[in-house]
Design a protein that fits this description.
With about 180 residues, this protein is of the alpha/beta class. The protein is built from six helices and ten strands; from the N terminus they run βααβββαβββαβαβαβ. The protein is globular. The chain starts with 12 loop residues before the first strand and ends with a strand.
Amino acid sequence: MVLRDAGVPWVVWLHGNHDTMHGEFSTFLKTVNVAQIPMIDWRAKFKLRFRGGGEVRIDAAHNHKGTSIYNRLHGQKRAALFDEDADIYVAGHHHTWGLTHEELDDGRVVWQARARGYKWIDEYATRHNFHRDEHGSTILFVIDPGESNAIKRISAFADLEEGADFLTWKRKKGGAILA
């Protein structure tokens, strides 16, 4: 199945290092996409604006600058502290996952996430003793644009089934969209 035929209202396709290493693959992605969906190299900062008012700001990157052996979300935390304001900072690249939200000193409640992706451990990872994460291939965010409480406005899940169940429950209550 081609991504454009998945029935998903894509906001953006974000290219990472493997997508741009070989010019042929990047050309292939652009060809199958036929300019229907914005294709951004490495990092995209954008806002989701809702009909009833309000917005959610997203900073999505193949990877955010900065690493730490103690914190898989170091790059996202750094971006939250020092880059432009966003509500969600999300990346991939390292084939590990993490998910947290917190209130920063300036009062913003932000989500920081890293998706592991669907690449399972390979020869390179085995040779260098990289840990094999079993969960977090995808991170699902459920956004309730009508919710004024910053803690309840955005919820995130490392388990798609749990996130889908939560989204169904939220929609029955009368709110929530999926991002």
